[in-house]
């Protein structure tokens, strides 16, 4: 399953998505650990989210994004949650274990431009990155120095990887909803960025407009 299609996750549904030998445990109503018994895997330990993490509300709308009528220009983005913070931990704990993401044309071009052969990474049937048998993206690699798995193409990662742990739902031609996928160890970390209008403009606006231009929403 592509991370872009996940709408509501709990311990039970997460267990269905992850490899069969991996089981999620919870702490303070937040995902804390995925322990994999497969010998080729390490134990994945995500940062436990603070008690203030509003996990029960994370699938609710974060913001409404309205376009100017008949255009692809943003009229306004209204944020509906306060206090939410995020910073990518580059941990490959959740997002990289949910299957290879769907690819846009520019994603393929960027990877090919970096020297990767399309035949080696492109799942034509799913129009996404090839997924390993264990459910992980083929670009997840072992960082032996730190004993962790990492995304080996982080700086040129696909659009939907850059969007994670957020998703965008189209309500009509002019109105979109920004949602949060509550399955990420970067949510509400102490050094996280406040998810607000500034955050959207700096980190998500270009992604959002790119998805609209490519008719991916």
Mean pLDDT: 77
Spell the H/E element sequence: HEEEEEEHHEEEEHEEEH
Largest β sheet strand count, sense and barrel closure: 4 strands, antiparallel
Coarse structural class:
alpha+beta
Distance between the termini: 17 Å
Number of structurally distinct domains: 1
Kindly state the percentage of residues in helix. 10-25%
Quaternary structure annotation: single chain
Determine the number of helices (DSSP H or I, runs of at least 4 residues).
5
Taking all Cα atoms into account, the compactness measure Rg is 17 Å
Trace the largest sheet across and list its strands: 5-4-12-11
How much of the sequence is in beta strands? 25-35%
- The geometry reads as globular
Q: How many beta-strand runs?
A: 13
Query: Uncertain regions: pLDDT < 50 for 5+ in a row?
Result: 1-56
Commentary on this structure:
The protein has helices at residues 11-17, 105-113, 118-121, 159-163, 197-213, and strands at 22-27, 30-36, 44-45, 61-67, 74-79, 85-86, 122-123, 128-129, 140-143, 148-151, 166-170, 175-180, 193-194. The chain is of the alpha+beta class and 217 residues long. The chain has one domain (3-213). The strands form five sheets. A four-stranded antiparallel sheet has the order 5-4-12-11, with helices on one face. The radius of gyration is 17 Å and the shape is globular.
